[in-house]
Automatic annotation (TrEMBL):
Keywords: ATP-binding, Cell membrane, Membrane, Nucleotide-binding, Transport. One of its GO terms (molecular function) is ATP hydrolysis activity. It is a peripheral membrane protein. The keyword Membrane applies. Signal peptide: none annotated. This is ABC transporter ATP-binding protein. Pfam families: ABC_tran. PROSITE patterns: ABC_TRANSPORTER_2. GO terms for cellular component: plasma membrane. Gene3D superfamilies: P-loop containing nucleotide triphosphate hydrolases. InterPro entries: AAA+_ATPase (IPR003593), ABC_transporter-like_ATP-bd (IPR003439), ABC_transporter_ATP-bind (IPR050166), P-loop_NTPase (IPR027417). Residues 5-252 form the ABC transporter domain. The keyword Ion transport does not apply.
Amino acid sequence: MANLLELNNVNHYFHLNTVHETHVLQDIQLTMKEGEFVTIIGGNGAGKSTLLNSIAGTFPVTSGNILLNQEDITKKNVVQRSQFISRVFQDPKAGTAVRLTVGENLAIAACRGKKRTLSRAKTAKNRSFFIEKLKGLNMGLEEKIDTEIGLLSGGQRQSITLLMATLNKPKLLLLDEHTAALDPKSSHIIMNKTKELIDQQHLTTFMITHNMEDALNYGQRLIMLHQGKIVVDLDETAKKNLTVADLLTLFQEQSGHSIQDDALLLQ
Ligand SMILES: Nc1ncnc2c1ncn2[C@@H]1O[C@H](COP(=O)(O)OP(=O)(O)OP(=O)(O)O)[C@@H](O)[C@H]1O
């Protein structure tokens, strides 16, 4: 199967050529197949968010190139890339207009990357489409279609953010610790919804998590990042029977360090 995403020798420096220079991504070589669900873990400051930001186009990489469906997107900015790359952030408020209703937020998401044509008939059709999608979440959120999204709980908001991110079937879905701000029960519900949406649409997905169990339980491949380098890359067979303890040992063997990250170890 063809590569959906390809990163070739990607390097990223912050504050290049200053005393504060940090080499955050170091010669990243990474490919993802279409439909692959990859989880990524690593200690604080390993460069996970920077890697996602580089793929999303939040800032230009210092060197190297990024290909999506064989097209070089390295020079495209975040808005141009958002036509085919969706992202869900840790903060459930990010990516939504908190003063607009659930329905209005979904309408904005549905227009992403398309020409906006609004007619009464289309608005009514969209409304029933959104109600069906909300029903699919099985959280009773179809009743909240006219509620301001800012008034919903973190878990409810995050499930709608997920729906918004997947409404137009993105080529690539980036999940940036999207359950980390939720309580354990909501986090579990959202992870199950995430898997459901990914499976239904066969979405190519890259998920950062601090939860090692989730990193092992979800997706077909697991990557560990350490000091800006990929130190572990496990396929489905390799990660199938691994425990969190095995993962910690593997990390130590490959990087020469133990994970100095309480958030990761406390999971
Ligand atoms: N905008 C920025 N300007 C300068 N340095 C930055 C910036 N963003 C991140 N860094 C630095 O880059 C390094 C990697 O940060 P990044 O946020 O990518 O790590 P992370 O693996 O996502 O960490 P965490 O798990 O703690 O969120 C850190 O040393 C961080 O201080």
